[in-house]
Design goal:
Shape: globular
Number of helices: 10
Structural class: alpha/beta
Number of strands: 10
Distance between the termini: 21 Å
Strand content: 25-35%
Strand order of the largest sheet: 6-7-8-3-9-10
Order of helices and strands: EEEHEEHEHHHHEHEHEEHH
């Protein structure tokens, strides 16, 4: 029995609702029977060993897996009650509302300014671009470091600054949700701390879902944590599944499942 009931004290508006989600790549089922909800303006972390499907599920939330030809999904992923995979849903529109920050910083080979306004220009943004740049960089805690060099190339920044630039570029597109796939794995400890502090600030305006291999990071930044693991099927392949989902302090302090307890205590992973 999967524990995915969340305590009443943190039940608020639901942004995503997953029901019996199975993820396939060709004939291979990578993830099975995932059911849980993700609330608004909270940080939800996905943790678990490599190969358990954390990133696959994250990428389903804004339909990035559609870009993989052999991918298909069964079950339902609803965004504010609307099936994200319904035939009439435009995946490009989905990605405007649900942004993604990747594992390695990926600034465009453009100026810092042009990185920020890239999405706005494509979407025929009618507002003040200068104001958008300043607001986005302030929200990503980068403005004071780059305000005098907005015409410098994005690649001139340090790795940690590049990642915050990518976060600024994502929020400049004015999404509601920001997905983060191991955003600190390529960063040094100081840059990691800055990104974690930024995550705490961003959840005031955005719903954040983060995949992390760093359990200490999940414990620091997440309000809710979903622990995924793998099991071996009858055919000998591995399939990921949701073991337990609850408030972060419960997952790390008093989990209900032995598998969760073994993982967060470092006995496997």
């Amino acid at each position: 029995m999967i524990d995915n009931e969340i305590s009443d004290s943190i039940k608020i508006e639901t942004v995503f609702s997953l029901e019996n989600v199975n993820i396939f790549y060709g004939d291979y089922r990578a993830v099975r029977d995932v059911t849980f909800t993700i609330p608004k303006n909270k940080v939800t972390a996905f943790i678990g060993p490599s190969g358990c499907g954390k990133s696959s599920i994250l990428r389903c939330l804004n339909r990035l897996n559609d870009l993989i030809e052999i991918f298909h999904l069964t079950g339902t992923i609803a965004y504010h009650g609307q099936n994200l995979y319904a035939p009439d849903i435009d995946s490009v529109e989905v990605r405007k509302r649900i942004g993604m920050v990747f594992q390695k910083p990926n600034p465009f080979p453009k100026t810092i300014y042009d990185n920020i306004v890239f999405g706005a220009r494509i979407n025929n943004y009618k507002g003040d671009l200068d104001e958008l740049v300043e607001t986005s960089l302030k929200r990503s805690a980068l403005w004071d470091e780059v305000k005098d060099k907005l015409q410098d190339n994005g690649f001139s920044l340090s790795g940690g600054q590049q990642q915050r630039l990518c976060i600024a570029r994502t929020i400049a597109a004015q999404p509601e949700v920001v997905l983060m796939d191991e955003p600190c794995s390529a960063l040094d400890p100081i840059s990691t701390l800055k990104v974690e502090e930024l995550i705490h600030e961003l959840k005031k305006q955005y719903t954040i879902v983060i995949v992390t291999h760093n359990m200490q990071q999940a414990a620091r930044v997440a309000d809710l944590t979903a622990f995924f693991s793998t099991e071996v099927t009858e055919t000998g392949s591995k399939v990921g599944y949701l073991v337990e989902y609850d408030a972060t302090q419960t997952i790390f302090g008093s989990p209900r499942q032995q598998n969760t307890k073994d993982y967060v205590s470092g006995r496997f992973g």
